[in-house]
Amino acid sequence: MFNEIDIDSIDLSLPAPEEEPNRQYYYMKLLKKLVKEKYYDKGKTPLVYNLVVGCQMNAKDSEKILGILLQCGFVETDAEDGADLVVYNTCTIRENANLKVYGRLGYLNSLKRVNPDMLIAMAGCMMQEKHVVDTIKKKYRFVDVVFGTHNIYKVAELLCERLTTGNMVIDILEDTKQIVENLPAQLKFPFKCGVNIMYGCNNFCTFCIVPYVRGREKSRNVDDIIKEIEMHVADGVVEVMLLGQNVNSYGNDLKENHISFADLIRRVNEIEGLKRIRFMTSHPKDLSDDLIQAMKECDKVCKYLHLPLQSGSSAMLKRMNRHYTKEQYLTLVDKLRAAMPDITLSTDIIVGFPGETEEDFLETMDVVEKVRYDSAFTFIYSKRTGTPAASFEDQVPMRIVKDRFDRLLNRIQTIAAEKTGVLVGRCEEVLVEELNDHIDGYVTGRLDNNTLVHFPGTADLIGKIVNVKLNEAKGFYYLGECVK
Ligand code: 5AD
Ligand code: SF4
Asked: How large is the C-alpha radius of gyration of the chain?
């Protein structure tokens, strides 16, 4: 584990090792030296602003980037203005995430005019797109370092190169088979964290850019995953979220020590001191009966499942390359509810996929009525360059899409409000996460089923699991009171 490594004992007079992670330990020591000379020796503290957008995977990647930078002497700041290094971890799942980046770059340029020494590093999914890197090279020459999703572990090495050569450094790998273990991570919350169990995706849903920017599936070894979770638990983590684009295919690519995802959660469930296990994301086509059984029998596994539907129309699902029909999806939901009657379900739905007719949309509405999701993320279809659906000819006019989107959202919100109402009056366990930023004297936490609860409390409760009486349901959240 990284906490057993002594970076300071590395001899910089020797050449950098070739093998990982030793190579990165070497560059962390070198960057630490460069940072000392550039900042600390001149009486300055180097500040890093770590900006991340997008999914849990990106959030985890940013924790790793920050973990390395803190080891090298940087100190985190929550103000972009005044930062010596800005690392911007980007998302490209939908176009609006993507468009914001260029606006933000313009702003960073204005900061850099005031402080020409400021370093800007661009990372993440959007950097895996060739046209984006070409644009940065042409129009945003003030960017210092560009790297993608496959080499975040190299952030110290790339910054060393930038500082020693003075050139813009661009390092993008198309894909990799390599997983580099034993590097540091700075957790956002000391009591809960994501843990990657696999990287990449093999599914190629026709709307989705993820397989192009995150590469093919690569599973981590069971022992590495367990060791990492045990280390976090020893440091105070009580809740883990096992992360993968499709956790249900965990292990399929492993030659040795192959275990299924169901068996992985059984192993994680045995970790002493851990209180809650979540996972994300489950593809319905790969959700096995054994996983349902494992969820049911493992006491630490939250009885909550995010099960992306995308569309309720079997014809659309086929065009989306999802490999299940409406009926198969509904059967799966029945099986889950038969095994765990109280299970909370959430989903992702795309409206306006090319070729979607009113009838197709009504099939989606029908699934929403039948499943009665506790919550749902709804998206307007966004055309992503390079995906098969981008060249489908029958794109749906925005006016129609917006109308469908509003109707869907309306039903989802009404059903979710009805469903949260059911728990009112009950006493439930809440993991307290933070001080409430709207109501003074309140804290915010989550139920096992992921729903937010706000209740009067103080900072000392953060990270603890407490009993809360749910007094009032407010759509997607509860107001409650702590009961001792
Ligand atoms: N347009 C709209 N939504 C998309 N998603 C993925 N790609 C697109 C796209 N091109 C949604 C899916 C996925 C979630 C993470 O983002 O619903 O499950
Ligand atoms: Fe994208 Fe489909 Fe892979 Fe999910 S399973 S990341 S939607 S391609």
From this structure: 23
